[in-house]
User: Fold this.
Amino acid sequence: MNSFMKTAIDEAKKGIEAGHGGPFGAVIVYNGKIIAQGHNEVVKNNDPTAHAEMIVIRKAAQKLQNFLLKGCTLYVTGEPCPMCFSAIHWAHMDRVVYCNTKADAAAIGFDDAFITEIILGKSPDPILFERHSDDTCKILFLRWFEDPKKVLY
Assistant:
């Protein structure tokens, strides 16, 4: 077994034993070294975004002092959910290595297929999203866009 994946699995075990959340652990590797490791903390933090991937992405960005994680590989015990998938892309990571599939996760109660169905327009969204038209918001966007010091990401 890959030593990085073993560390991710060990993190998942820690999280399970501590009652922090689901059976998910993750590590981020940069230049052959682990720069961040963690596990799911949804229950511990009462935070639905505290997935293992999100925890380690935040840690790695702080460690590297960069919100772009180019050159990094994520090792995670489960195939990333849509939220984590998006965060991985926003971070511009190079590679993701995972063990259990989305089907494996669904079989134990972590079924996120409904989110993908909503995004693809194959299922109705149970949450009401309402556009509020306001020129003040457009002005904010324009102000940021015209700022020569802005940082694109």
